[in-house]
C-alpha cells in the first residue's frame, strides 16, 4: 500500500460511517411517516365505526317517539279539549302517555300557542298556561306539517328535542298542536361516560350536544347578524351567548379545536341538518408512532451490538487462528533450522572423519617408508662410533640427536595411524585405565607425576573397541603430562563414575590449562600450541572422533590451575 491509499483509509471509514448513519436516519424518518400514516388509517377506521355507532344511537333516540305526537293528536279527548275547551282529565291522560313512553313532556297548545294541557302539570315548573307560539315546531305544526326543533327549554331551561304535530277538527282544519319534548340527557350522559369526545353541531354550526361542557352551545362558524336575530326570536338557546369556538377544519380529517389537534370522523343527520363529530386527539398517534420508533431504535441498537460482538468474536477467532499459524510456522522454521544445523554438523564431521582417515593412511605409509632409513642411519652412526671412538658432543652425537627427533615424529605418526581392528567387547573400566596408564608409565615416572585414580565401586562394563578407547586415554594422559612439565604440583587425577545412562571418565591435571580455548577449537585437526616437532595437533581431533564413534561426547573445561577432559559414554550401547 502506498502513502496516498494509506491516507485515504480514515476518509473512507468516515464516509462509511456517514453513509451508514444517513441510511439509519433515513430509515427512521421513513418508518416514522409510514407508521404515522398506518396508525392514522387505523385510527380513522376506528373513528368511522365509533361515529357510526353514536350516530345510530342518536337517530334512534330522536326517532323513537317521532310518531307519538301524531297519535296523540288523533285522541278525541285532545280534539274535544281544543274544540270545547274541556280539558277535564286530559292532563292526567298526557302524564300517563309521557310516563309510558318515557318522554320528558307531552303537551297540547291551542291555535295561538297557549298550553292548555301538559303531562308535567303537577310539577312545580310546568308548561300549563305558557305560550310557545314562537317556536318553529308550533308554527310548522299549525301549517299542517310535523315540526321538529332542538332548543333549550323556555320554561325548564333544560335542552331537548321538540316534535310537534297538528290537531285538526272534524273538517280537517288545524285547531291546535300536540308537542313532545325528548330530553336526550341520558344519551349524552352515556356518551360522556364512554370517555370519547363527541360533538353534534346544527345547521348553523352551533354545538348542540358535546361530551365537554366547554364546547356546548358554542359556534363553530361565525354567525351572521340575521342568524343571530332569528335564533333569538326562536329563543332556541335561551340566554346562551353562543361564543365562537376555535374550530379549524384541516386536510385529511384533521381538526383543530381550542388549540388541540384532533382526528375526526363525522356523520350527517340529514333531516335535521345536524352533524355528529367523533374526535380523537392526534397526540395519541404521535405517541404510538414514537413508541414504534423507540422500539425500532432498540431493535437496531441490539442488532448493532450483536453485529459488533459477532464481528469482534470473528476477528478474535481469525486473530487467534493467525497467531496459531504463526506459532506453527515459527516452530517449523525452528525445526528446519535445527535440522539444517544437524546436517551441517554431520557434514563437517564427515569431512573431518574422512580427513582423519586419509591422514591415518598417510601417517602409516610415511612411518613405514621412514622406518628403514632411520634404523640404517642409526646403524651407520654406531659403526662410525666403533671405528673412530666416542667423542662426546661430536658430529656423531649431534646426528644421533637428529635421528632421535625423527624417530619421535614417526612414533607420533605411528600412534595416529593405528586403527586396529573394529572388534568390540565388554570393557572393564579399570582394565582400560590401567592399560592406558601402563603405556605412559615411563613418562609419568620420568616427570615425577603422582597418579590419583578414583573408580566407583560398581562401574558397569561398556561395549566398545578397547584399543581405540585406550588410544583416547593415552592421548589425554600425554597432553596432561606435557601441560604439567613446568608445574609445581604434578598430579594426574582419573575419576570414573556412572549413572543410569552414562559412564563418565574425567582426566584432571594441574598444568598450564586451556587458556579459555573451547573443545571445538582444541579438537580442530592440526591445532596445537606445542613447539614444532613436539605436537601435530591431531591428538584431540582423533580422540574426539573415537569417542563419537562410541556415541559418546568429549568435553573440556579449565580450572583455576589445570584442565579437565571428560569422556562421556552411553551405557549398554556399542
Ligand atoms: P598436540 O598435543 O599434538 O598439540 P592435541 O590435539 O592433542 O595436539 O592437543 C591440542 C592442543 O590442546 C595442545 O597443543 C595443547 O595446547 C592443548 N591441550 C591439550 N590437552 C591439554 C591439557 N591437558 N592442558 C593444557 N593444554 C592442553
UniProtKB/TrEMBL annotation:
PROSITE patterns: HIS_KIN (PS50109). Its EC number is 2.7.13.3. GO terms for molecular function: kinase activity. It catalyses: ATP + protein L-histidine = ADP + protein N-phospho-L-histidine. Pfam families: dCache_1, HATPase_c. Gene3D superfamilies: 1.10.287.130, 6.10.250.3020, Histidine kinase-like ATPase, C-terminal domain, PAS domain. InterPro entries: dCache_1 (IPR033479), HATPase_C_sf (IPR036890), HATPase_dom (IPR003594), His_kinase_dom (IPR005467), HisK_dim/P_dom (IPR003661), HisK_dim/P_sf (IPR036097), Sensor-like_sf (IPR029151), Sig_transdc_His_kin-like_C (IPR004358). Residues 329-356 form a coiled coil. It is found in: Cell membrane. This is histidine kinase.
Amino acid at each position: 500500500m502506498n502513502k496516498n491509499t494509506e491516507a485515504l483509509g480514515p476518509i473512507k471509514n468516515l464516509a462509511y460511517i456517514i453513509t451508514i448513519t444517513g441510511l439509519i436516519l433515513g430509515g427512521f424518518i421513513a418508518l416514522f411517516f409510514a407508521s404515522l400514516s398506518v396508525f392514522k388509517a387505523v385510527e380513522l377506521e376506528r373513528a368511522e365505526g365509533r361515529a357510526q355507532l353514536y350516530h345510530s344511537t342518536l337517530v334512534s333516540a330522536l326517532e323513537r317517539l317521532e310518531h307519538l305526537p301524531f297519535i296523540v293528536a288523533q285522541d278525541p279527548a285532545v280534539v274535544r279539549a281544543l274544540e270545547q275547551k274541556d280539558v277535564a282529565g286530559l292532563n292526567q291522560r298526557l302524564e300517563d302517555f309521557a310516563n309510558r313512553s318515557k318522554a320528558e313532556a307531552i303537551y297540547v297548545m291551542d291555535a295561538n300557542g297557549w298550553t292548555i294541557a301538559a303531562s308535567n302539570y303537577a310539577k312545580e315548573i310546568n308548561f300549563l298556561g305558557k305560550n310557545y307560539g314562537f317556536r318553529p315546531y308550533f308554527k310548522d305544526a299549525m301549517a299542517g306539517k310535523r315540526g321538529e326543533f332542538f332548543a333549550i327549554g323556555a320554561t325548564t331551561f333544560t335542552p331537548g328535542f321538540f316534535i310537534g304535530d297538528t290537531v285538526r277538527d272534524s273538517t280537517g282544519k288545524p285547531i291546535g298542536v300536540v308537542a313532545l319534548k325528548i330530553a336526550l340527557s341520558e344519551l349524552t350522559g352515556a356518551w360522556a361516560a364512554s370517555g370519547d369526545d363527541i360533538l353534534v353541531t346544527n345547521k348553523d354550526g352551533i354545538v348542540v350536544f358535546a361530551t365537554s361542557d366547554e364546547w356546548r352551545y358554542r359556534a363553530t362558524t361565525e354567525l351572521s347578524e340575521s342568524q343571530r336575530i332569528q335564533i333569538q326570536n326562536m329563543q332556541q338557546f335561551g340566554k346562551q351567548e353562543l361564543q365562537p369556538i376555535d374550530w379549524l377544519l384541516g386536510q385529511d380529517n384533521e381538526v383543530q379545536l381550542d388549540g388541540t389537534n384532533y382526528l375526526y370522523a363525522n356523520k350527517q343527520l340529514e333531516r335535521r341538518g345536524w352533524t355528529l363529530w367523533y374526535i380523537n386527539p392526534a397526540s395519541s398517534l404521535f405517541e404510538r408512532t414514537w413508541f414504534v420508533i423507540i422500539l425500532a431504535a432498540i431493535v437496531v441498537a441490539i442488532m448493532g451490538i450483536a453485529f459488533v460482538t459477532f464481528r469482534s468474536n470473528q476477528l478474535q477467532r481469525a486473530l487467534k487462528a493467525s497467531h496459531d499459524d504463526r506459532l506453527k510456522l515459527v516452530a517449523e522454521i525452528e525445526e528446519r533450522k535445527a535440522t539444517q544445523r544437524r546436517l551441517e554438523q554431520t557434514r563437517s564431521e564427515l569431512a573431518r572423519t574422512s580427513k582423519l582417515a586419509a591422514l591415518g593412511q598417510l601417517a602409516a605409509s610415511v612411518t613405514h617408508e621412514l622406518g628403514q632409513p632411520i634404523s640404517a642411519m642409526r646403524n651407520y652412526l654406531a659403526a662410525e662410533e666403533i671405528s673412530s671412538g666416542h667423542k662426546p658432543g661430536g658430529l656423531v652425537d649431534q646426528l644421533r640427536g637428529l635421528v632421535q627427533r625423527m624417530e619421535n615424529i614417526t612414533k607420533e605418526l605411528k600412534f595416529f595411524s593405528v586403527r586396529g581392528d573394529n572388534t568390540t567387547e565388554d570393557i572393564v573400566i579399570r582394565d582400560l585405565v590401567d592399560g592406558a596408564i601402563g603405556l605412559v608409565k615411563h613418562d609419568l615416572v620420568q616427570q615425577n607425576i603422582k597418579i590419583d585414580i578414583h573408580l566407583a565401586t560398581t562401574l558397569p562394563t561398556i561395549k566398545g573397541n578397547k584399543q581405540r578407547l585406550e588410544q583416547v586415554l593415552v592421548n589425554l594422559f600425554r597432553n596432561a603430562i606435557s601441560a604439567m612439565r613446568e608445574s609445581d604440583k604434578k598430579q594426574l587425577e582419573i575419576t570414573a563414575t556412572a549413572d543410569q545412562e552414562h559412564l563418565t571418565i574425567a582426566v584432571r591435571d594441574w598444568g598450564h590449562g586451556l587458556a579459555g580455548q573451547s573443545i571445538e577449537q582444541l579438537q580442530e585437526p592440526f591445532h596445537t600450541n606445542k613447539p614444532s616437532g613436539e605436537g601435530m595437533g591431531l591428538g584431540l581431533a582423533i580422540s574426539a572422533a573415537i569417542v563419537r564413534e562410541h556415541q559418546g561426547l568429549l568435553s573440556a573445561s579449565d580450572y583455576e590451575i589445570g584442565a579437565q577432559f571428560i569422556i562421556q559414554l552411553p551405557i549398554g550401547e556399542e
